[in-house]
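Case study B.
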Amino acid sequence: MASSAGRRARASVRGYRERATRASGLSRVGEWWASLPERTRAWIPVAIVVTLAVLYPFYIDSLPTNIPIIVQFPPLHDTVTILVFVMMAVGLNIVVGYAGLLDLGYVAFYAIGAYTAGWLASGQFQQVHFSFGAIGVQSNAGGIHISIWLVLLIAAIVTAVGGILIGLPTLRLRGDYLAIVTLGFGEIIPQFVRNADDLHGFNLSGGTFGINPIDQLGFGNRLHDAVGLPVTYNAYFPPTPDRLFYWTILALLLFTLFCSMRLRDSRLGRAWIAIREDETAAGAMGVPLMRTKTWSYAGGAFFGGIAGAYIATFNSGAFPTQFDFNISVFLLCMVVLGGMGSLWGVVVAGTILAWLNFDGLGNIGSWFNTNILPGSHQIDVPKYSFGIYGVIIVLMMLFRPTGLIPERRRKREIEEGTRGPLDEPLYEMRGADEPGAGERGAGGRVPRG
Amino acid sequence: MLGLVFVALILAWLIYNAVTRTTPFFNVLLIGLTQGCVYALVALGYTLVYGILQLINFAHGDVFALSGLFASTMVGGAVFGLTSSSTTFGLIGGLTATFVIAAAFGALVNSSIEFLAYRRLRNAPRLSVLITAVGMSFIVQNISLAVYDVNARSIPQLIPGADLIHVSGVSYTWDAFFVVVVTAPVLVLLTWLVKSTRHGKAMRATSQDPEAAAIMGINVNRTITFTFALAGALAGVGATLYLVEFNIRYDTGFTLGLIAFTAAVLGGIGNLTGAVLGAIIIGLIQAFNEGPFLDAPGSDWTKTLVFTILIMILVFRPEGLLGERTPEGA
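Model:
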């Protein structure tokens, strides 16, 4: 009995192999795939996605515009904003995902970045005449005009310093207090720029009108003549400016991703993750807690600053209404949905959510209203966008706290219940009726009275 | 040290204004106290929930706005049909009923939030619960938006703005008096509830040590639900009071909630007396900031001022005015 069964099994294995060799095409691809080194296998999908993204401006016009539900792919102009938001989500992921510190005021960094660009590359301060490498500005124009490329870097550094200044006094606080303080800063800074048009007669921020116009991106005549790079982005007929802005933000985003990845694997990044997992243990192992946390703030802020300065030059203006608390929550939603600490998860979730916000909800709403609800009962879907994000946040937290694409380490943490700075459990409700009560043996934690 | 100098400077500024502009000074003082009463009711909700779950219930401000909107439909519309010309008896009856219904509504909403979201996260990391609270805040806000739309709701002026007491330019109006008349008994009732009833005892026990409380036979989940209901009821009463003087929009709750939370932190979060004290201080600060005084920054800066205070307290005295210092430092 047993031997005949074994023979049959062997025969079926042989048959399978034969069939596999016969269906040669696919299996050869499979074998080739398996023979590749693991590193290469991990990078090929990334390379494909990046290539598709780089070529997007060329094939966007041939994409269909009557797809059910989502209607169409985002037009190039919106894609720039979407990528700026993805970039900010990746920056926020450094603070929330890597270091496990809840930041509810990331919009402050965005605002600082945008206004730094406004101050250093516009005619805001007519009293001074300063120009350094600015493109498309008359030499006798009032105000400070520094090359936008340089301004992107300066904004990043200023914002990082801002992050350190906000972080130093507050990072000692426990997690939820830290969240509130960051929220406070996220509210103060927009209100400050809204009201700072009359600081004892000095107009710092242009008040509700904001600062505009802001200088343009470009490479100038010399580089144009030498290598053919565009003089200024806006000097061309559409869609060329949008394409240039798109490629620039794509490059910035890839740079952010690269930095974020290298940071995660660096000594500093491992210290962040150690703090996230167990602050006390990390401290006992010699991780300097304050310094490490402050660096995570500075790192997150750095990219927020670049994003803010970039969107300011893209929109050619910085306006106080851009910087709501909602933006902070929206970015947090991207990180939560993607999986805290998971870089690719944040990119995917960020792209989806940002697209929903700028295009998708409108498209879906109009499709829904024309195809499902023709008649009087029309729903204004974008009006409830933040309710929808709220639902996403709550559902993710309740049913899949690790996010769409969980980071392996974070997943283990949540499953095993290690405790970072914020990860103290609320309460251990271990009643007699719960099976397996007391297994985790965390002991009686005495909450503060 | 620096804090003391700061406080001294503020006192000097107050005294200067009290001397030079006596009449507006006292008027503003009364406005601040009135405003502080409303903040107190909301701040107590934050403090109650924080005391028992150590959770900042971000949705609390939005529960406030939703119950306020709900109350606005009760008072003016088809239900009670109160107008400024209603009889005194009808006015008292209608308003009392509105307060009770708004309180019940707030309690229902707040405890449903706990039941639907927070309860499932009892063993989850604190970060998860906090993020969920932010999400719930947006959900409740959008429910308000869906039901009551973007327009601000108000009620007819039921309590006359006429003077109750008038002493040399300083006037104390009926509507300000009304706010105090409602708030004071509610606070007394709450104190009695927490200090002297079985439910209150269970709340205090759960807040000290939920496990030990459970061992002693306290139904911890029910106690938590009760706390959320209590906080929601306070928000409902507060929202109705707020309606007497101002109007409410779907997003009123966010800023107001943050201000009230600041008040709770200022007084020492988890401490009931502290919340009331903090709320009155914040109410006064707001009133003086917006009042007609020398170099007062004005209402444009109120939010900045309040949040700066919040940050200063959290950094320099995280246990608040009346809280106890703990080894954790907060």
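The mean pLDDT of chain B is 86. The remaining cases will be described in the next quarterly update.
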